[in-house]
Structure to design on (312 residues):
């Protein structure tokens, strides 16, 4: 491994979450606001990836009235080794879900709505028609809101991606999650090149922002992180999120290293140097973390005609 190695007995410990470094203690948001978000989600029988994935930012995001909706049920057809979402018999597609989601997003006053799903390899289109239905419903019901979709790879079906893009989301996000070398262990049913092809196709479609994200702490080294950022830029990705992997449950992969905050600054510089328009990198960054801010920053910079330079 090159660079500083943060592997420790603590990181490799039995629960992988004990004695977390201080920079990983999650900031808490407003408890009252968080309770209001939860109440609204329960009332609409809606799920969020924030809760299902045990995101460490939940206090902060719910506290500022934001959440990432999880559609197509809370059971996944894949078994990625980093994820907390349960594998199991997937629920039937709920045709009323788009309308309930729009109602909840409206009541929560969201101006940027992020929607993701479990992988639905049991459905012929991987769930693309439902994603598209959600985007169309948001366009009709909340025309002032912008929409970000964080999509699975749809098993590589190009027509599924095209169906989602035809609904004209503002941001198309698809996470590569880790470096290609670790796919067999981390994402055994996924394919790195398939994900790159999806991102490239999204870029060619003209969607205004193509985004991806990955975690560090799964066994990659810093050279691989830099190479991955350059690969994503080369394949048309415009913005990338990079965050620390945290083991969500005992059966999940242990944390291989805790990366210090300053190293995330290096990743950001490397990504900007490779031609990405924005890199949001930090221990607690997740793919939907401050998604509204990230999009606004990219658009402001485009309007001002001054691309970000490495070091800014
Ligand atoms: S970072 Fe994303 S997934 Fe995590 S709580 Fe915030 S909105 Fe939810």
């Amino acid at each position: 491994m090159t660079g500083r190695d943060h592997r420790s007995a603590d990181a490799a410990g039995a629960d992988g979450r004990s004695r977390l470094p201080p920079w990983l203690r999650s900031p808490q948001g407003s408890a009252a606001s968080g309770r209001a978000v939860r109440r609204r989600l329960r009332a609409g029988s809606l799920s969020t990836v924030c809760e299902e994935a045990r995101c460490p930012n939940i206090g902060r995001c719910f506290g500022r009235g934001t959440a990432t909706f999880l559609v197509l049920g809370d059971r996944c057809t894949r078994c990625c080794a980093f994820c907390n979402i349960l594998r199991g018999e997937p629920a039937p597609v709920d045709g009323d879900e788009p309308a309930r989601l729009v109602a909840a997003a409206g009541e929560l006053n969201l101006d940027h709505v992020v929607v993701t799903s479990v992988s639905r390899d049991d459905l012929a289109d991987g769930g693309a028609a439902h994603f598209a239905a959600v985007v169309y419903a948001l366009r009709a019901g909340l025309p002032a809101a912008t929409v970000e979709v964080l999509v699975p790879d749809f098993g590589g079906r190009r027509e599924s991606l095209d169906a989602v893009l035809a609904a004209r989301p503002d941001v198309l996000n698809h996470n590569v999650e880790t470096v290609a070398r670790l796919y067999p262990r981390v994402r055994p049913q996924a394919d790195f090149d398939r994900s790159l092809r999806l991102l490239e196709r999204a870029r060619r479609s003209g969607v205004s922002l193509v985004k991806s994200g990955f975690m560090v702490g799964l066994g990659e080294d810093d050279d691989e992180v830099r190479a991955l950022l350059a690969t994503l830029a080369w394949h048309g990705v415009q913005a990338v999120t990079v965050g620390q992997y945290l083991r969500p449950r005992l059966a999940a992969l242990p944390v291989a290293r805790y990366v210090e905050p300053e190293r995330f600054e290096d990743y950001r510089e490397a990504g900007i140097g490779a031609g990405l328009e924005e890199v949001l990198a930090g221990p607690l960054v997740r793919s939907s973390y401050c998604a509204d801010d990230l999009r606004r920053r990219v658009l402001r910079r485009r309007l001002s005609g001054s691309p970000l330079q490495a070091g800014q």
Notes: The chain has one domain: 22-304. DSSP finds eleven helices and ten strands in the chain. The radius of gyration is 18 Å.
